[in-house]
Specification:
Blueprint: E1 8-14, H1 17-28, E2 31-36, E3 41-46, E4 52-58, E5 71-75, H2 82-90, E6 94-96, H3 100-104, E7 106-110, E8 116-120
Parallel strand pairs: 1-4, 5-8
Antiparallel strand pairs: 2-3, 3-4, 6-7, 7-8
Helix pairs in contact: 1-2
Length: 124
Protein backbone atom coordinates (compact mmCIF):
# COMPACT_ATOMS: atom_id res chain seq x y z
CA UNK A 1 0.00 0.00 0.00
CA UNK A 2 1.30 3.46 -0.87
CA UNK A 3 1.33 5.99 1.96
CA UNK A 4 -1.20 8.72 1.02
CA UNK A 5 1.28 11.32 2.30
CA UNK A 6 3.94 10.29 -0.22
CA UNK A 7 5.83 13.15 -1.86
CA UNK A 8 4.87 14.08 -5.42
CA UNK A 9 6.99 15.48 -8.25
CA UNK A 10 5.35 16.90 -11.36
CA UNK A 11 7.89 17.00 -14.20
CA UNK A 12 7.50 18.58 -17.60
CA UNK A 13 9.55 19.97 -20.49
CA UNK A 14 10.03 23.70 -21.08
CA UNK A 15 10.78 25.73 -24.19
CA UNK A 16 12.28 28.62 -22.22
CA UNK A 17 13.42 27.44 -18.81
CA UNK A 18 14.38 30.93 -17.60
CA UNK A 19 10.96 32.39 -18.50
CA UNK A 20 9.00 29.59 -16.83
CA UNK A 21 11.28 29.70 -13.78
CA UNK A 22 10.66 33.47 -13.45
CA UNK A 23 6.87 32.91 -13.67
CA UNK A 24 6.85 30.40 -10.82
CA UNK A 25 9.55 32.00 -8.63
CA UNK A 26 8.99 35.74 -9.07
CA UNK A 27 5.31 35.45 -9.92
CA UNK A 28 3.97 32.66 -7.71
CA UNK A 29 6.63 32.69 -5.01
CA UNK A 30 7.95 29.13 -5.27
CA UNK A 31 11.54 28.56 -4.19
CA UNK A 32 14.30 26.93 -6.20
CA UNK A 33 14.91 23.60 -4.45
CA UNK A 34 17.49 22.28 -6.93
CA UNK A 35 19.15 23.27 -10.19
CA UNK A 36 21.31 21.10 -12.36
CA UNK A 37 22.63 20.79 -15.86
CA UNK A 38 23.78 17.89 -17.94
CA UNK A 39 22.01 16.30 -20.84
CA UNK A 40 19.06 18.46 -19.71
CA UNK A 41 18.84 21.59 -17.60
CA UNK A 42 16.62 20.99 -14.58
CA UNK A 43 15.04 23.34 -12.06
CA UNK A 44 12.97 21.95 -9.19
CA UNK A 45 10.59 24.44 -7.61
CA UNK A 46 8.36 24.31 -4.58
CA UNK A 47 8.09 25.22 -0.95
CA UNK A 48 10.47 23.37 1.38
CA UNK A 49 7.64 22.22 3.66
CA UNK A 50 5.36 21.04 0.84
CA UNK A 51 5.02 17.37 -0.09
CA UNK A 52 5.14 18.23 -3.81
CA UNK A 53 7.42 20.05 -6.19
CA UNK A 54 7.51 21.01 -9.84
CA UNK A 55 10.42 19.87 -12.01
CA UNK A 56 11.05 21.90 -15.15
CA UNK A 57 13.26 20.34 -17.81
CA UNK A 58 14.94 22.41 -20.51
CA UNK A 59 16.84 21.20 -23.53
CA UNK A 60 14.73 18.07 -23.83
CA UNK A 61 13.78 16.56 -27.17
CA UNK A 62 10.20 16.62 -25.87
CA UNK A 63 8.47 19.88 -26.71
CA UNK A 64 5.81 21.15 -24.32
CA UNK A 65 2.35 20.32 -25.65
CA UNK A 66 -0.07 21.75 -23.10
CA UNK A 67 -3.80 21.50 -23.61
CA UNK A 68 -6.47 23.53 -21.87
CA UNK A 69 -6.90 20.64 -19.44
CA UNK A 70 -3.25 20.46 -18.31
CA UNK A 71 -3.88 22.19 -14.99
CA UNK A 72 -1.89 22.73 -11.82
CA UNK A 73 -4.57 23.65 -9.29
CA UNK A 74 -3.71 25.31 -6.00
CA UNK A 75 -6.62 25.29 -3.55
CA UNK A 76 -6.31 28.54 -1.59
CA UNK A 77 -9.45 28.17 0.57
CA UNK A 78 -10.04 31.90 0.22
CA UNK A 79 -10.02 34.83 -2.14
CA UNK A 80 -7.42 35.05 -4.89
CA UNK A 81 -5.05 37.95 -4.28
CA UNK A 82 -5.22 40.22 -7.33
CA UNK A 83 -1.66 41.39 -6.59
CA UNK A 84 -0.53 37.77 -6.99
CA UNK A 85 -2.34 37.54 -10.33
CA UNK A 86 -0.72 40.82 -11.43
CA UNK A 87 2.74 39.43 -10.46
CA UNK A 88 2.11 36.26 -12.46
CA UNK A 89 1.11 38.33 -15.51
CA UNK A 90 4.07 40.70 -15.04
CA UNK A 91 6.35 37.64 -15.02
CA UNK A 92 5.21 36.20 -18.32
CA UNK A 93 1.80 34.74 -17.53
CA UNK A 94 -1.44 35.26 -19.42
CA UNK A 95 -4.79 35.33 -17.65
CA UNK A 96 -7.14 32.98 -19.50
CA UNK A 97 -10.73 31.78 -19.27
CA UNK A 98 -10.96 28.16 -18.12
CA UNK A 99 -14.67 27.41 -18.42
CA UNK A 100 -17.65 27.98 -16.16
CA UNK A 101 -16.48 25.84 -13.23
CA UNK A 102 -12.93 27.16 -12.81
CA UNK A 103 -13.87 30.73 -13.75
CA UNK A 104 -16.49 30.63 -11.00
CA UNK A 105 -14.11 29.16 -8.42
CA UNK A 106 -10.86 30.94 -9.18
CA UNK A 107 -8.46 32.52 -11.61
CA UNK A 108 -6.46 30.75 -14.32
CA UNK A 109 -3.11 32.01 -15.59
CA UNK A 110 -1.16 30.29 -18.38
CA UNK A 111 2.60 30.14 -17.84
CA UNK A 112 5.03 31.06 -20.65
CA UNK A 113 4.84 27.50 -22.06
CA UNK A 114 1.02 27.56 -22.04
CA UNK A 115 0.46 25.26 -19.06
CA UNK A 116 -2.33 26.53 -16.86
CA UNK A 117 -2.14 27.41 -13.19
CA UNK A 118 -5.51 27.62 -11.44
CA UNK A 119 -5.71 29.57 -8.19
CA UNK A 120 -8.90 28.19 -6.72
CA UNK A 121 -10.90 29.87 -3.98
CA UNK A 122 -12.10 26.45 -2.84
CA UNK A 123 -10.48 24.08 -0.40
CA UNK A 124 -9.73 20.46 -1.09
Amino acid sequence: MIDPLVSVRLARPCRDLAAVRRFYVEGLGLEVLYEGSGPHDIVMLGWPSASWHLELVGGSSSEPAPTEQDLLVLYLAGAVDEELVARLVANGGTRVAQGDYWDRWGVTVADPDGYRLVLSTRSW
